[in-house]
Amino acid sequence: MTIPKILHCADIHLDSPMRGLARYEGAPVGQLRGATRQAFERLVRLAIDEDVSVVVIAGDLYDGDRDDYHTAMFLQRQLRVLAEAGIPVAVVYGNHDAANEITKRLALPANTHAFPSDSASSHVLEDRGVALHGRSYPTRAVSEDISAGYPRAVPGLLNVGVLHTSIDGRPGHDPYAPCSLEGLANHGYQYWALGHVHKRESYHRDGVHIVFPGNLQGRDVGEGGSKGATLVEYDESGVRSVAHRDLHSVRWDRLEIDASGIGDPDAAVEAVAARLGVLQADFEADLHAVRVVLAAGPELTRSWLRDAERFEAQMRADCTAGSDKLWLERIELRPTAASNQEIPDEAVAAVSEALASIRSNPDRQERADIAELVEGVRSRFGPDAGQVVRLGGEILDKENLDRLLDEVESLLIAELTGGA
Prior knowledge:
This protein is α/β, with parallel strands linked by helices.
């Protein structure tokens, strides 16, 4: 006997633009830009392979309005593949694909039900033993607890609430459709299929499963680790099991290495290559995008930043040779103080405080002030002071300005801590 299943996903962000890729020379742009589509295709294949009863999408199917219909056409094709397999789909729209956000949206196939945005409603699939309850966002910002208006549970069926929410607040996420875990657990449903939070979270309260599956595909290193969907098995008694399934095409990760005892940049390159060699044995994604973070002592910091471009190129060459599945997204140094040296705390604090002020007010900081700071570092450390020279004193976007100031700070602190 086949066990009935629900496949729950959220935050697809189809065709997310992956902003900033132009800054990365040699980046596998095609793979990165196609990652959200490839992950969605894997979702469709998994749904068919598992013969699921219904696919539930808990918001942010789109990534905001697009300037053409290509995203909508791709979605149509994939939904029709599910329709041909006899698999229904239920969707709520969230803040990125709210009713007033998407203009280039095509009519959905007959197998796909989109919950309306004016009020909460139920979508009953009696032949599959499931009653789905949900409400789409009418506008991008929904500030009230819309879950309070969700319908009563339908007796004799598995009741699933589909909701795009931050619950009672999550760091890095707008506080949309606020509610509480207790309120959801006491609503009378057996499962809450949530969206909006891009990191997987799962709760079990009084027999009720409340799940954020995380986003289907990470879009940058801040959305690292395993990404995918949640497969829910159920029967007439309720939920039997809840399991994550990897579906990402590109996996993002941070590799942090303690290089505080290494003074030679070439030795640091060898240490990173050795660690990545071990990791590659477990690579299962089409592409593994890794940010390398070196905790470096003053000697390594100073030596590296004097010729950062060469050492970065050497690391990329040594670590990715012969592999089209590994890309070093960025290489960062995090300076650490040598434990056996006397550190001038006041001087280090003054440098950090000055740079923190620039970081916090980049729009109000005069171009001349940043240029003067960079010029001072250049004159002290010479023309090969890595990114400082390559970026110069231009007013940059927030991310590149932060990188520039990080490097200035590393150089200055390395000098203050005696890293000659």
